[in-house]
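User: Design a sequence. Structure:
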């Protein structure tokens, strides 16, 4: 997802072509949230809001900083695996 400069956002609002996607309100599944973020980017969303815990925000941040779809998929899979591993060790 691109971080737009203020003037670009102003133009988007002036041209009435702003799209805001909200993910994670009723679904905290990281894979589905990540898929929604990627779909929003491909669809040209201007804003993406993520309602998530710290792990979910981390997934969103990682996706937003990568340019390659392959790198994004690898990063999301790696984060999901790391979080699953950490969660399995935390359960007593």
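Assistant: Done.
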């Amino acid at each position: 997802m691109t971080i737009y400069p203020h003037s670009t956002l102003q133009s988007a609002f002036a041209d009435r072509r702003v799209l805001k996607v909200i993910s994670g309100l009723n679904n905290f599944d990281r894979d589905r949230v990540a898929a929604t973020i990627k779909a929003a980017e491909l669809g040209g969303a201007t804003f993406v809001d993520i309602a998530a815990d710290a792990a979910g925000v981390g997934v969103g941040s990682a996706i937003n900083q990568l340019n390659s779809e392959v790198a994004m998929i690898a990063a999301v899979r790696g984060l999901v695996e790391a979080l699953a591993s950490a969660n399995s060790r935390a359960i007593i």
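The first helix runs from residue 6 to 14. The chain has two domains: 9-51, 53-91.
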